[in-house]
Amino acid sequence: MTRLISQDVENISVDLDRFDSLLHAKTGHTLLEVACHAANINKRPRRSLISSLKAGVVPMTSGEGIIQGFSETVRSILAHLGFHAFVTENTDAAGVAEAFENSVDIVMMADDRRFVALSPKNCQVIDNSVATGWGFAAGLDLMVGGLKGNKVLIIGCGPVGQNAAEALIHFGAEVSAYDVNHERCIALAKRLFRSKYVNIRTEKSLAHALSNHKFLIEATNSPDVIDEKSLGPGTFIAAPGMPLGMSIAARKKVEAHLLHDPLQTGVATMGLMGLKACRPLELDQEIKPNG
Ligand code: PYL
Questions:
Q1: Which residue puts its alpha carbon closest to atom 1 of ligand 1?
Q2: pTM above 0.85, yes or no
Q3: Tens digit of pLDDT for each residue in 52-97?
């Protein structure tokens, strides 16, 4: 997992409305709706239910320490969706205690290994890698008008790519996977067959795979994994990978069909997964058809 730097997050909070309208232009849906789709919530929850969820974001000083702006950005994304979110004044254990003392529904914190949303009341763990994989797969599904029966190539079989593969299977896609370490592809294919009885295609040549797929999930930390030549007018890319795996020229070519952000989609999906974990009955009532 690439560790973000403050420059990756410094403009997110002030730009969320513009981000949301660009996302809507590309997918026909807002960030809240994409996150609902990712969390398998098929009816947008009423605002009062969302605002009832209280989230404490705790800065963590372990490892390489605090990323300037990270916790505030997480808070602003949750608040943008309508959640009651705050950053604790204290860091680390004192921050977790402060969150508990404020009766939060979820505690969010990230060290250099994991970024998680924890639900104290029902001991649930929502991992950013899971939320990000599902969030970008959901965005791709909405952007192309439904992935069912379509081939999708996942580039990068790390935690985000693995979770994206599970999400793509849920959306009915035919999944192919490439990783510079082919063993990781094989391991993913074996795991998905054992758990879902689904066969995915493992690709040994990225150039060949790119020539055969127009729907892509780019989940690597490589800055130039997709070359401009392999992109056409029908290419649609959801790219959770940081940094974005293509050149500026390539990005210009596919911008209208590209989903890429360092935190927004993953954090929004964590929020909706948290709502589902903490308010299952209220959500269930929302989901049941009227009458
Ligand atoms: C969650 C992000 C997404 C991509 N890489 C992940 C990352 O940068 N992880 C490290 C997060 C450290 C946060 C720091 C703080 O400010 O609390 N401990």
A1: 115
A2: yes
A3: 999 999 999 999 999 999 999 999 999 999 999 999 999 999 999 9
Q: Is 71 in the pocket of ligand 1 (CB under 6 A)?
A: yes
The beta strand positions in 132-256, using DSSP E, are 151-155, 174-178, 201-203, 215-218, 236-238
Q: Is there a contact between 93 and 51 (Cβ–Cβ < 8 Å)?
A: no
Alpha carbon of 127 to ligand 1 centroid (Å)? 12
CB of 284 shorter than 6 A to ligand 1: no
Q: Which residues fall within 8 angstroms of residue 205, CB to CB, at 6 or more apart?
A: none
Cβ–ligand 1 contact at 114 (below 6 Å): no
Report the candidate in 160, 7, 136, 2 with the shortest Cα–Cα distance to residue 70. Answer: 7
Residue that the structure tokens 């990005």 belong to: 251
Helix, strand, or coil (residue 116): strand
Q: In angstroms, what is the C-alpha Rg of the chain?
A: 19
